[in-house]
Amino acid sequence: MPIQVKQLEYIYYPKTPFEYHALKGIDLTFQDKKFTAIIGHTGCGKSTLAQHFNALLRPTKGEVNVNDYVITPKSKIKHLKQLRKVVGMVFQFPEYQLFEETVFKDIAFGPKNFGNKEEDLKEKVIEVLKMVGLDESYLDKSPFDLSGGQKRRVAIAGILAMDPDILVLDEPTAGLDPQGSRDMMQLFKDINAKGKTIIMISHDMDSVLANCDEMVILKEGQVVTQDAPNKVFTNDALLKELGINAPEVIKFARTLQENGLNIDLESIRDIDTLIEAIAKARRGE
After folding, report:
1. Cα 180 from Cα 173, distance rounded (Å)
2. For 241-275, how does the pLDDT look when each residue is reduced to its tens digit (9 = 90+)?
3. Residue 129: CB atoms within 10 Å
4. Cα(first)–Cα(last) distance of the chain, in Å?
5. Which CATH number describes the domain made up of 3-246?
6. Contacts of 125 (CB under 8 A, 6+ apart)
7. Domain ranges of the chain
């Protein structure tokens, strides 16, 4: 089932001098098995919204429906532990959450606490290690001896080991080099292709364009638009109004278009599709 957000409002520190109205009447639907990005300037409410999906935050007003769970200001959610198995949260710099002495123990911690049998744990850990591009040779290593990118993969494997239906990512490529970022995004595309719903908070517009089916733009705690990335990023008036830069590949394609090349901007998602568009334009198609 999709995640449905209905008239969601959230206020930090209500009735104090520090009161801050972070979300203001949010109405959204996040479709099953889609890869959706949430974007917007710092402070617009992206992380606050995401933390409602597994009840890390409870609404001040409104509700959030996730599968059979209804999260409201007054609801006492039964089986909250189970909800947090349905929705896996990968926070920014998840490698900071590593704490066990071996990679195996760190990844096994979640499923073990959800009641997985000891004899099944190793098989599960190896399975998710392979999903994140690592092999069995890492099982007995200390996670603290790994590179930054490897640590992040182990941390993500720990979330995947609980087999969530929905994966929520908060700036998953933050701090990674360009190749590391591309590898990480390919990992999430592969996970999405296997049927998991992915919701990603991001400031990387090129990654959003290349990988996401849909995007939500927030501004000052409200939804501005929800649409396909290629439609949003070719809407110059909207981008200018919001102060959002188009992805570099769209900027370059627009420059070619302004210089006489008849390019369909909405067909462009990445370098490969730009090359295809240029070839079609040269052939007069």
Report:
1. 8
2. 999 999 999 999 999 999 999 999 999 999 999 99
3. 23
4. 41
5. 3.40.50.300
6. 104, 107, 108, 139, 157, 161
7. 3-246
Amino acid residing at 281: A
Angle at which helices 178-193 and 148-160 pack, to 10 degrees? Answer: 20
Q: Is 244 helix (H, G, I), strand (E, B) or coil?
A: coil
- How far is residue 171's CA from residue 243's CA, in Å, rounded to a whole number? 19
CA 48 to chain centre: 14
Write 111-120 long-range contacts (CB < 8 A, 24+).
Answer: 111/161, 111/162, 114/81, 114/85, 114/162
Mean pLDDT over the full length of the chain: 91
> What distance in Å separates the CA atoms of residue 157 and residue 155, rounded to the nearest whole number?
5
Alpha helices by DSSP H, 61-147: 80-86, 103-113, 118-131
d(CA 69, CA 77): 7
Residue that the structure tokens 């959610």 belong to:
77
Q: Residue range 99-116: average pLDDT? A: 86
Q: Which two tokens stand for residue 28?
A: 């959204």
Q: How far apart are CA 57 and CA 55, in angstroms?
A: 5
Neighbours of 42 (CB within 10 A): 7
Cα–Cα distance, 35 to 211 (Å, whole number): 7
Six-digit token string for 241: 């109004």
